[in-house]
Write a structure and sequence with these properties.
There is one protein chain. By secondary structure, the chain is α+β, with helices and mostly antiparallel strands. It has one domain: Deoxyribonuclease I, Chain A (4-Layer Sandwich). It has five helices and twelve strands. It has a six-stranded mixed sheet with strand order 3-4-2-1-12-11, covered by helices on one side. Helix 2 packs across helix 3. The longest helix is centred in the middle third of the chain and has 16 residues. The protein is globular and about 50 Å long.
């Protein structure tokens, strides 16, 4: 059985994709209403690639800046990924933003958990490990996604907590996310989970990728059929990762 999964930090649909100057030009999109063309483009590629599971970071679950439209619902409406879960991470005053992680899938989601990670809350925002227990043709798969802190010490604590959680999971696991680091020393703790990291190209910034900070990991239950970065989908400051995994048993 093969599963095709995409992992994407969509940057709230702000579409900063031309250069660092674009952050200034489109900063208003971080809090003010704007169109959802980016989500339409994302959905088109999901259909083209025949994706089974999509995980998202910097998703918006409906707020002032999205005109109260839940972008997860838009993805489900425009694709075959009819089951979706939005995992809230951060709200701003008066409903300006509703940031979080998300999953959309063709398969049944049996249960969900949004595990708050202990981190340095005086710097930056709260971080969560978003967990989906998915039934794929009778096989139970745990799909985890996260976006980690920008600071080294916070990230290290978060990775330690994630590693401990994964070690207690029985059965197949897929772990995706924007881990905000390319330092092997920080990622080494994930070796304790027995997860394997898919070797993919650099993803950030999308207009001139120089850093590998977006990842897909999988348990030994899977083997990688193929993987790539979707270079044509430049609707964020990140490029999306896509991988086709074969479940061995």
């Amino acid at each position: 059985m093969n599963i095709k999964i995409v992992s994407f930090n969509i940057e709230y649909g702000a579409s900063v994709n031309k250069g660092y100057f674009d952050y200034v030009a489109k900063l208003w999109k971080y809090v003010l209403p704007h169109d959802n063309k980016a989500v339409w483009y994302i959905s088109d590629v999901i259909n083209k690639e025949d994706v089974d599971i999509a995980t998202f970071m910097e998703m918006d679950g409906g707020s002032y800046r999205t005109r109260n439209i839940n972008y997860m619902n838009v993805v489900s409406q425009l694709t075959e990924l009819k089951n979706n879960i939005f995992y809230p991470v951060r709200h701003m005053w008066f409903g300006l933003t509703n940031q979080g992680n998300g999953i959309a899938t063709k398969y049944t989601v049996l249960s969900v958990q949004n595990l708050k990670l202990k981190t340095n809350k005086f710097i930056g925002e709260n971080r969560y490990l978003s967990i989906s227990k998915v039934d794929i043709n009778g096989k139970i798969i745990h799909v985890l996604t996260t976006q980690l802190a920008l600071g080294h010490f916070s990230r290290s604590d978060e990775l330690r907590q994630i590693s401990e959680y994964i070690k207690n999971i029985k059965g197949p696991v897929i772990f995706t996310g924007d881990l905000n680091t390319q330092q092997e020393g920080e990622l080494k703790i994930l070796e304790d989970t027995n997860l394997k990291r898919i070797d993919t190209p650099k993803t950030f910034p999308s207009w001139n990728p120089k850093r590998r900070i977006d990842y897909i990991f999988h348990s030994p239950d899977f083997e990688v059929v193929n993987s790539k970065v979707l270079e044509e989908l430049k609707v964020s400051d990140h490029l999306p990762l896509i991988a086709e995994l074969k479940l061995k048993h």
